[in-house]
Design brief:
- It is built from four helices and two strands.
- It is mainly α and 163 residues long.
- The protein has one domain.
- A two-stranded antiparallel ribbon has the order 1-2.
- Strand 1 and strand 2 form a beta hairpin.
- Helix 1 runs antiparallel to helix 2 and helix 1 packs antiparallel against helix 4.
- The relative contact order is 0.17.
- The model has no long low-confidence stretch (mean pLDDT 86).
């Protein structure tokens, strides 16, 4: 891998680390409470299993991103890292998808199931969850770009012919 490719990969990994870390922190610190009909309810990420899964997935991706920053591109582990990049990309995709589905129900409700929207009562919580989901989506896109770039750099020399 030449110097330009290493710098680009390092930059993408740093951006992914920042995005996953931001997503984790935003989701974990999201909470709000509201009073409806003299009943107080609290909205927090730990009330919903999809949001817990999201936090765990983003934290795993953050830890992985941090560890991979210290692995040399000349290391024999680089093929394993490529495989783990695929796993992390799939993990992030599934966690963002699950959380977006729950966030949509929180924002819009579901009239068929009789679920009312809650974002009208807990604005701070919904805004923070939205920020976390945007950061997570950005991290997923960065990992997808990183994965495609890594695959291209690993496998394109196999298909070039030398005169």
């Amino acid at each position: 891998m030449n110097k330009t490719m290493r710098i680009f990969t390092l930059l993408l990994r740093l951006l992914a680390l920042g995005a996953t870390l931001a997503a984790t922190i935003l989701m974990v610190t999201s909470h709000d409470s509201a009073e409806v009909l003299n009943l107080t309810f609290e909205a927090k990420y730990s009330n919903e299993s999809a949001f817990k899964y999201y936090v765990i997935a983003e934290a795993i991706a953050s830890g992985y991103s941090l560890i991979v920053l210290f692995v040399s591109s000349k290391s024999l582990l680089w093929r394993l890292i490529l495989i783990l990049d695929v796993v992390i990309t799939m993990l992030l995709t599934s966690s963002v998808s699950a959380s977006l589905a729950i966030a949509r129900v929180g924002k819009k409700g579901n009239s068929h199931a009789g679920w009312l929207p809650i974002c009208g009562q807990v604005h701070k919580f919904c805004n923070q969850v939205t920020g976390a989901l945007v950061a997570g989506l950005v991290a997923t896109i960065i990992y997808l770009v990183l994965l495609l770039y890594s695959l291209h750099s690993v496998y394109s020399p196999l298909f070039t012919t030398k005169p």
